[in-house]
Give the backbone structure.
Amino acid sequence: MFGDVFCLRVLHQRMVFVFDPAMLSLFFKAPESQVSFKPAVKRFTQRVYGLPSSEFFERHEPLLATLRQLLVPAELEVLGRALLRYAAPQLQAWQQQGKVELWASCQRLVFQSAGRVLFGEAFFDRHGLQAVQREFLTFEENFEV
C-alpha cells in the first residue's frame, strides 16, 4: 500500500519508514554527505543539551568514533568477558536475594556493568557510580523521542 520507503505524520512528527533492504543498507552505511541525521536532531540537541548544534556535534562525533572503535568485532570477546566480570556478582546477589524487582535490577545490571566496561572504574570513582546512574536514568526516563 505504501511502498518500501514512505513518510507518515505520527503525533505531529514526520516519521520515515524504510523497509527495502537496499535502502536500509544505504541508510546505515552511506557517508554523511548522502545521509545525515543532523537536521533531524538539531532542535532536540539544542533543547536537551543547551548547545547550538555545531557545538554539540563537535563534541559528539569524537565520542561516537571512540565508542564505535570499542565495539568492533575483534574487541567483542574482550568486552564480553569484562562485562561478565561486572555482571556476575550482581546476578549472584539476585540468586541470594531470591526475589528482586526485575526492572530496577535489570537497569542496575546493564548500567553498572556496561558503564564500567565503556567508561572505566576511574570515571565512576571520580563521579560516583550511584550518582551517575541516578542522573542517567532520570535523563533516560525523560528522553524525548
In short: The CA atoms of residues 5 and 74 lie 34 Å apart. The longest helix spans residues 73-97. The longest strand covers residues 5-10. The chain has a mean pLDDT of 83.
